[in-house]
Amino acid sequence: LRIASELRYALENNQLRVFFQPVYSLTKERIVGCEALVRWLHPERGMISPADFIPIAEDSGLITNIDSWVLNTSCQQMKAWLDAGLDLKFVAVNVSSRLFSRIDFTEKVVEALAESQLDPSYLELEITESAVMDDVERADSLLNKLCDMNVRLALDDFGTGYSSLNRLKSLPVHKLKIDQSFVRNLPSDGSDAAIVRAIIALGFSMQLEIQAEGIETLEQAEFLRQSNCILAQGYFFGRPMPAAEFEQLIS
Ligand code: G
Ligand code: G
Ligand code: MN
Ligand code: NA
Q: Of 11, 38, 246, which is best to mutate to test ligand 1, by the most ligand atoms within 8 angstroms of its C-beta?
């Protein structure tokens, strides 16, 4: 409870930061986008990972405020980068199940886009499998609405949740993000190699973009390139970093 109120204070007093992790195109051989990842710059305890405070934020309901703040900040940053002439295709923002299930979720997206003046096609929303399994009809109508607005949609941590291929068939998303657990032991683990190749093939035949996560080595990057995976994200290409650092990296 104490941490929850500290977190509320942090949000209201400018202690949260948005870091950006590069997304690399293996075919274009350059950075084409980024994922926004929140950090808590605690005055005494230093940088706190979202892995440690997102669960607390979810329990207390504060997660929707944090996600909205990250969404607004990311849209504004992306707009500034595009205005400065940076050649980026998208900024991806994580959407918690809590935010996704809110009745005013699309309004928050519309607001963030209107306030930032960012063209919606540069915003990618990362949705989890659990969020789209809860109330299938509502999820589909919501995602279709966002699609119609030209917002991009990605299914995060693909392969780890409860969604089925049957669900995927009708799901209005543009991208699947292969979870890092399948990438970690590439290329030596035969099962992981088979799963990753199968997801890439599935993406190709369903006309979905595929982005692999958690690439840490050249060997993993090479395996993915040879398997015709187009997009890659991981420490090998760059860690999540402050906006100024990301800007330096690409210009
Ligand atoms: O950035 P990182 O390395 O430590 O993130 C840990 C977890 O926190 C990941 O599951 C990531 O998806 C989640 N996360 C990071 N930033 C956000 C955010 O802005 N909103 C939500 N809902 N989750 C986030
Ligand atoms: O749940 P989500 O996929 O949004 O979370 C992404 C998380 O993965 C963040 O915590 C981010 O910092 C972390 N991450 C990004 N690249 C790598 C990587 O190459 N290796 C590891 N171990 N974690 C990574
Ligand atoms: Mn994510
Ligand atoms: Na992920």
A: 38
Q: What is the mean pLDDT of residues 231-250?
A: 97
38 lines ligand 1 (CB under 6 A): yes
Q: Please, what are the domains in the chain? A: 2-250 (3.20.20.450)
**pLDDT tens per residue, range 197-227:** 999 999 999 999 999 999 999 999 999 999 9
Please report where in the chains the tokens 């330096």 appear, as a residue.
248
- Three state DSSP letters for 15-64: CEEEEEEEEEECCCCEEEEEEEEEEEEECCCEEECHHHHHHHHHHHCCHH
Quote ipTM for the complex.
Answer: 0.96
Which residue, by CA, sits nearest to atom 13 of ligand 1?
50
Task: Please check whether residue 30 is in contact with residue 22, taking contact to mean a CB–CB distance below 8 angstroms.
Answer: no
Is the pLDDT reported for residue 163 higher than 80? no
